[in-house]
Amino acid sequence: DSDEEAGEEYLFKVVIIGDSAVGKSNLLSRYARNEFNMNSKATIGVEFQTQSMDIDGKEVKAQIWDTAGQERFRAVTSAYYRGAVGGLIVYDISRRSTFDSVGRWLDELKTHSDTTVAKMLVGNKCDLENIRDVSVEEGKNLAEAEGLFFMETSALDSTNVIMAFEIVIREIYNNVS
Ligand code: GDP
Ligand code: MG
């Protein structure tokens, strides 16, 4: 259509990765539908959700992919990563083992991507300050060392969720435009 001819249509694939139960599905449901589920249910059927934002007066759509629980078996397939230009690597600030896994997720993302990927390290569940197991400083330092954006979020109380996704989407837009 005329939009495409004018080169003003943007659709970016973004993947969410990280250990099981860090809050990946809830970050996406909070961002795309403003919903939160206390009881984690396996994602059934839906592979991704599309969310639009406006940048420079242009409609930019992000197709955001969520795993269906395969990460539990370390079995996220290459199809999941294919074509991704953005990634959120999520850990749970109350569970150090999930922070220790970040390097492995970064390696996997690198292995499967053949282009520049805008990456955000996300320390989720920042509402759980009383049982914090990873300091803000550690998150920041790792992000700096790996060249990632960094943000602590809470899918539960909505802290920084929109911000985390939108920073990644803006960076992708900057990379391609
Ligand atoms: P996933 O396996 O990474 O997709 O994680 P889920 O989104 O299924 O969440 C796992 C569990 O953590 C669920 O019981 C959620 O309710 C809970 N959860 C997710 N995000 C948050 C958060 O920001 N704060 C708190 N306190 N719990 C969260
Ligand atoms: Mg999930």
From TrEMBL:
It is a lipid-anchor. The keyword Lipoprotein applies. It is found in: Endomembrane system. The keyword Membrane applies. It comes from the Eukaryota. GO terms for molecular function: GTP binding; GTPase activity. Keywords: GTP-binding, Lipoprotein, Membrane, Nucleotide-binding, Prenylation. Its main location: membrane. One of its GO terms (cellular component) is endomembrane system. Belongs to the small GTPase superfamily. Rab family. This is Uncharacterized protein. It comes from Liquidambar formosana. The chain holds residues 2 to 178 of 218 of the full protein.
